[in-house]
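Hi team,

As requested, here is the filled-out complex form for the zinc ion run. I kept the field names the same as last time so the parser does not choke. Let me know if anything looks off before we queue the next batch.

— J.
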Amino acid sequence: MASILIKAIIENAFTVSAVESKDLVNKAIKLHQLSPVAAIALGRALTMSALMGKDLKNEDDYLTCVIDGGGPLGKITVCADGKGNVKGSVSNPVVEATFNKHGQINVGEAVGKNGKMTVIKDIGLKAPYVGTAQLITGEIASDFAYYFATSEQQPCGVTLGVGLDNNACKSAGGVFVQVLPNCPEDLLFRLETIMYAMDEMSYQFDGSTAKQVIERFFGEFNVVFTEEAPVKYKCNCSKRRIDRVILGLGKKEADSIVQELGQIEVCCEFCKKRYVYDQQAVDKLFSK
Ligand SMILES: [Zn+2]
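And here is what came back:
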């Protein structure tokens, strides 16, 4: 089952995006050999990046979110474009989990909350848009909600869930509610109650599509589905991009690395693809 993202407008007062993201998370687990807590943290962030990517206006627009909470996982980076492609990485993918008093994996502790979230949106303008917010829990969903409320002045609700079974993702998904300026007060109150009830998000997506999850929680309202699109884990690295990195080193530095190590090897942090340059390839690149 491919991951599908659904968008709806409800009562003309708020929008809801939902995505079923099990495949995305499993691809990340495989690529990065993620420990359970790393899988949950990166999986939640990847799910959110898919939801945010859908709001980019153009297919070539690009967003990057960096969550740097000072915890043992280090930096979590996720990226999305407007075409439904997402990718991500985490500095320390093998961190062991600690558990809270309910026996659940303590994601907030692994991410940390002594730090910030940075969102960079490249939307074809001269300079990218950059927004930041403090992390408040390290649990990812509430940190994104806080980011939107403070940095983008966008009231919203975010809920994200990743459920694991023996180091594989069993079910995952997320719901992103954005309140429109004309949303009446009483509706806002009902919305808060619904968001509060959206607990254990991974169970909600276990065997359910994104559309079914929206219908389950918002069925009492007038729901108009506006978009349905596939999302996938796909890296946009290329030989050309890596060429530019090597050129950035300068010929002297590139030559000295080849002399010392026999070749220059670059491994993409997002898809683990290896790019190798021997002396001949370096000479050719710099002669262009
Ligand atoms: Zn790559």
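Two things worth flagging: The first strand starts at residue 3 and ends at 10. The mean pLDDT is 94.

Thanks,
J.
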